[in-house]
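Lecture 7, part 2: worked example. A protein chain together with manganese (II) ion.
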Amino acid sequence: MSTDPRTHIPATLRHLRQSRGWSLERCADATAVSKAMLGQIERGESSPTVATLWKIASGFGVSFSVFFGEATGADSHVPDGAGEDAHWQDAAGMGLDVLIPFDAALGCEMFAVTLAPGAMSASAPHASGVIEHVIALDDGVEIAVDGRWHSLAAGQARRFAADRPHAYRNRRLQPVRFHDLVHYPR
Ligand code: MN
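Predicted complex, written out as structure tokens:
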């Protein structure tokens, strides 16, 4: 399956908002993203960062990967589900591919992330109970948890509670890659 996030992201936001009957103002309150920005994203006039998309997902209580393709059904568990063929490159230097779309039964999804040289992406807290597992593919992946930076070498992993502020950065001169397994509580 192939989904173009440039059209799928605006359509998904519009669908989420309209299906709940939320005004832009109500949506801004729930997501902590400004009304103006939400309107621009919905009209396809602004290309959201990964951090902004996460705020929207958390505010609506949906998985992050809904912005990148069809989620598996609410009750379905697809053991052999393949990743979506969707790539997102944001203005903060974070590139993201969906490796494994959200699985409602397992409550998890997995992304491949690339940070450009010098990139830093700070994330607001995700929904309560969300846990991330970051597995570094290259030396130099750095994760801030509770205000402390941790540097990972290739092959190292770190699990952290992502329902608090956290951040990702790359201080190297070449891109660094990691996998991010996100787990949502029931
Ligand atoms: Mn995060």
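Residues 72-77 have pLDDT under 50 and may be disordered. Residues 5-68 form a domain with the 434 Repressor (Amino-terminal Domain) fold (CATH 1.10.260.40). Keep this in mind for problem set question 3.
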